[in-house]
Amino acid sequence: MAVHCIVPARMGSSRFPGKPLVKIFGRDNVGKPMIVRTLERALLAECFDRIVCATDSEEIAEVVSRAGFEFILTGPAATGSDRVAFAARALDLDLVVNLQGDEPLVEPSVLCDVAATLEKHPDEWVTVACPLNPAEAGLKTVVKVLVKDDYAVDFTRWVANEDAPRWFQHQGIYAYSRVCRDEFSSLPQNEVEKERSLEQMRILGRRPIRIVQSKYPSISVDVPSDVNAVEAAFK
Length: 235
Hints:
By secondary structure, this protein is an alpha/beta fold. It has helices spanning about 35-45, 60-65, 80-90, 110-120, 180-185, 190-195, 225-235; strands at about 5-10, 25, 30-35, 50-55, 70-75, 95-100, 125-130, 145-150, 150-155, 165-175, 210-215. About 30% of the residues lie in helices and about 25% in strands.
């Protein structure tokens, strides 16, 4: 079955307004908007029939289009998965990998693993976990996931240092079929989702969330200081 990639991006991040268009310098010493860097990583995976940026910003859409990528304009959305659900519905897509736009260092082979896992398990959500740096146990910008028998059982933004070995770092990738997305977008945001600012809490316990294990550390851009870490990793 065909698997597609949708990269949601919005200008109104509360912690980092305008984040998708921040310039990130790679080993080529060229500064490119982060959303373009992320789309390029999806392209390197060579496992997607279609790669689309879903955004509420005409400015982002213009940047994406100039870089040679497809976009779709959406209205306001509570979460990235709500935005992806709208875009996938408008484009009539079934199997979709949601690659969050602040993952410019995502490993392409991991995206292929996620796509293949989704094809095998279209009735489940699929997401990614990688090793958690114990020093980041209390860092709330780093999302943690507790895994049992290849499934997520909890997500949080903070764990005690002594509990860190039990947890993994969650990476900003989701994958789901049309049925799973429509179920998610039809549900209201619950209190845990809003309290933790973690969209996956809306579906946890209602739909299995299968974990793809990655050996590659994740460096996402959540706040401005993360840009330096990403550029250092690129180089």
